[in-house]
What does this fold into?
Amino acid sequence: MNANLFAAIAAAMPADRDRIAIEIADPADGRIEREVSWGELESRTAQIANLLVSLKLAPGARVAVQTEKSVEALMLYLAVIRAGYVYLPLNTAYQSSEIDYFVGNAQPSVFVCSTKNLAWTEPIARANGVHHVFTLDDLSTANTGTLLDASRLHSTAHDIALKADDDLAAILYTSGTTGRSKGAMLSHQNLRSNAQTLVSYWGWSANDVLIHALPIFHVHGLFVASHCFLLAGAKLIWFSKFDPKGVIAQFNRATVFMGVPTLYVRLLAEAGLDRDACKNMRLFVAGSAPLLIETFNAFRERTGHTILERYGMSETNMLCSNPYAASDGERRGGTVGFPLPDVQVRVSNDRGERCATDEIGDIEVRGPNVFSGYWRMPEKTKEEFTADGWFKTGDVGKCDPRGYFTIVGRSKDLIISGGYNVYPAEIESYLNEMTGVAESAVIGVPHPDFGEAVVAVVVRKSGAALDAAAMIATLKSQIANFKVPKQLFVVNELPRNAMGKVQKNVLRAQHAELFAAKSN
Ligand code: MCA
Ligand code: AMP
It folds into this structure.
């Protein structure tokens, strides 16, 4: 059997290749602008796969991609998998020092960027030894980019590369609590097994129509959403950008929606979100960050739908899900439900023993979905697994007597803002480099839209004058904008405990109302 994920995707395509696979919507009003058939998806991915093969890349070569969201970018992902290379998606918000790190660390053979970024990204790629640089833009824009132009010269027939279960399919960078980002290595089996589990557990069929409004450089939009639609042979309504009005306008033609909690908060802010607008829908899925119980309840009241919350990680794909079928139990707000079939989840105390029911401890996981390790970081990989082979998620939680898991916090110092992960240590390292800064502490505080917002507390060196606005502006020029603190406070000292450790919990309590007050 060919374990290539694309072999499973090809097998699930409808026999009638003229059927529409993707409808591309205008983000603002939801109007359908273009359609892509299954046949086109198949032949376009074959052409791009053939182009990649013609480059005579080494086995296991990485293809790094930083492009705007487009169906062409989804085709590129599928083509990389199909041709047997390794896909490395990069957030469009990343700036030069971030791209330099990822490209330097992963050493891709191919780098694909938007035409508008070529001038600054190509030198970084070339300096890091990348041989092939292409551009890729949305087909609806005038310039389609060199990747599509070159691919059109290639055959629309392509034999799917033969892959084993453990062969690498993708590398997803996730930041660490200390040091730089780590590349989570995901195999064809990791991706395929998890996608097949979700298709079956969430009751997918070829009649489903999924509204896809998430970015495609992280697990949620790239894997969870795209793989479910592909393996069910269903249909996508494609939004290049989330817009609540446009999305609501399409609910009456769709059956499934997936979003991070911020998308649900923004949907709820629209008067047009009501039972009638959602009457064709069968499933709303939330994940990537905690869904507040207020959001869960408000959505049910307004639409009559109970959001299904699930929990996952870049290293593991999806781990837990609230039940889809009523016969499996109710969907409980504030919980992430049960371990998915095939996935094992346990809660351990700091002595490595199993916690009792309802006892809080570290969440550890095992299964065919769990990655094999961090790219070229064997020591880090070893640290993140227990002696008996379970992956330590860094999330803290508990399991109730009925088997529902709840995430109560994180042992890792991580902020999740609007579904994007921000590691305080990274922001602190940039702040600490600035003239006049003695030290800094970056925290997450509750935010009505993003769930958590990044806030920095900076200690000035004796006699130094620090300008908070100027420091924020400097950060904006250095790092992805979602990581930049929404507010920065200059203080004389940080609160410390008896051991001299900075008490971030004290800072979080001090600033807990910062954004709540603003929203009133
Ligand atoms: C945008 N901004 C943000 C965020 N997004 N600030 C904090 N957190 C954010 N997430 C800021 C920008 O820096 C900018 O600030 C201003 O908001 C407007 O930017 P814009 O791009 O127009 O924002 P937006 O389009 O409204 O984006 C908000 C968003 C987006 C739609 C919620 O953040 C988003 O798509 N989030 C989803 C992320 C996701 O897919 N996560 C899944 C990870 P300024 O004006 O100052 O420059 S996968 C995962 O976590 C696991 C595996 C799982 O379980 O799924
Ligand atoms: P990432 O590695 O960027 O994919 O982020 C994974 C992290 O997101 C997990 O370790 C959790 O901390 C968090 N996460 C994902 N889904 C949920 C959820 N439903 N509830 C709470 N936290 C979540």
Summary: The chain has 16 helices and 25 strands. The first strand starts at residue 20 and ends at 25. Residues 35-162 form a domain with the Rossmann fold fold (CATH 3.40.50.980). Residues 174, 219, 287-290, 309, 311-314, 336, 393-395, 407, 410, 416, 421 surround adenosine monophosphate (ligand 2) (CB under 6 Å).
